[in-house]
Amino acid sequence: MIDSHCHLDAGYFADERAGVLERARQAGVSAFVCVGVGRGTAAAQEAVALAAGEPDVFATVGVHPHDAAVTSEADWTELERLSRAPRVVGVGETGLDYHYEHSPRDVQQLAYRRSIALARATNLPVVSHVRDAHLDAAAILAAEAPAAGGVIHCFTGGVPEARAYLDLGHHLSFSGILTFKNAGNVREAAAFAPLDRILVETDAPYLAPIPHRGARNEPAFIVETLSTLAGLRGLAVAEIDRATSENTRKLFRLPQDARVG
Ligand code: NI
User: Fold this and answer.
1) How far apart are CA 75 and CA 71, in angstroms?
2) Distance 7 CA to ligand 1 centre (A)
3) Distance CA 209, CA 206 (A)
4) Distance 203 CA to ligand 1 centre (A)
5) 92 in Cβ contact with 127 (< 8 Å)
């Protein structure tokens, strides 16, 4: 299994991080895409350092829409440098969040465009976070057209939103939300999307799937999302694992020797 999107900042797991990674490996997780975002560039630096030290961890770096308004030119310069570091496999998570609106919408839009431009310059895929902003996000993705494609992480839309992103060539990543009772529209989208365009993620430490809901999430819990997805699509867990792992490996161009499945 591959966790295509998790946050492994030491601050979330303190001295338990090594144990969290080991538990996931024991559960069958063969690769982690560690998303390095947060105020400033500390989380991005940490993700790059972690990936340098763990053979099965890869990093992304970027500006989260929440932080768009507090990202300085010096931060951007450092992120541009980090995006070219070894084992950095994507730019993000970036995007638009009109639900929390921690940064003004126009500032989020500018940061999203700038992030996609960075992804184009580095030929990396874009990891998008979109909440209550699907129309604007799809318009920006269409206009900026990241050449290496990308993924809408922790997808929370229904079939119409899924179709818009799929038509633009993007992948959809499903999180523990798939297991939540009130997520019928997300389950419909997960059943609808082509098998070669879907990924799974934990988004740890957030959004723990049922039966862990409310607890701190960790990559070992990816199996709950995979088995829910398998049930929705009428496939064996091993089949859905093989497909989503292969999709993740291709999108992020994980090295061939990164074990898959
Ligand atoms: Ni995330």
Assistant:
1) 6
2) 6
3) 9
4) 5
5) yes
- Which is nearest to 115 in space by CA: 106, 103, 125? 125
**Encoding tokens for residue 238?**
């091993």
pLDDT bracket for residue 255 (50, 70, 90): confident
pLDDT score at 259: 52
Distance from Cα 84 to the centre of ligand 1, integer Å: 21
Bridge partners of 90? Answer: 60
Q: What is the pLDDT of residues 38-86, one digit of tens each?
A: 999 999 999 999 999 999 999 999 999 999 999 999 999 999 999 999 9
CA of 128 to the centre of ligand 1 (A): 9
**pLDDT value, residue 14:** 84
pTM: 0.96
Query: How far, in Å, from the CA of 20 to the mean position of ligand 1?
Result: 17
Q: Where are the domains of the chain?
A: 2-252
76 alpha carbon to ligand 1 midpoint, in Å?
Answer: 19
Q: Which of 75, 54, 56 is nearest to 64 (CA)?
A: 75
* Alpha carbon separation from 80 to 63, 76, 118 (Å, rounded): 11, 6, 7
Please state which CATH number belongs to domain 2-252: 3.20.20.140
How far is ligand 1, taken at its centre, from the CA of residue 216, in Å? Answer: 14
